[in-house]
Amino acid sequence: MADVIVTSSTNLQNEVRYGENHVLITDEPPEAGGEDAGPDPYTLILAALGSCISMTTTLYARRKGWPLERVKVRLRTERIHASDCVECTRTTEGYVHRIQRAVSFEGELTEEQRARLQEIAHKCPVHKALTSEIVITELV
What we know:
- The protein is an alpha+beta fold and 140 residues long.
- The protein contains 3 helices and 5 strands.
- The strands form 2 sheets. The protein has a 3-stranded antiparallel sheet, with no helix packed on it. Strands 4-5 form a two-stranded antiparallel sheet.
- Strand 2 (14-18) and strand 3 (22-26) form a beta hairpin.
């Protein structure tokens, strides 16, 4: 996987370079001091997860020859107290980030195919990365 290079520019905006010639701008919304010139960092996390879910389920359906026409992933994130998190098993103090998602599939799919695609959606690589231990180290 190629490096991602993030360079600060104006105010809170950043230029994100990746791949051969790809560039995108990130920013914060005005209420956070930005100019809303691009997605904020949490939106990028949700976009990565949603894109991965869509790609993973599309590839699976394609391999199976299923008539999947479109995948729609709706996501939201919130920071909550760990004590208020009924799903949490590891973190009991402080805060946790909860990502909620709804995945829907369009096409002439059977209920069994839809159920299987929902299972596959939980197996995308970004989902696995976000739900496993993440270690951030210095790049040399």
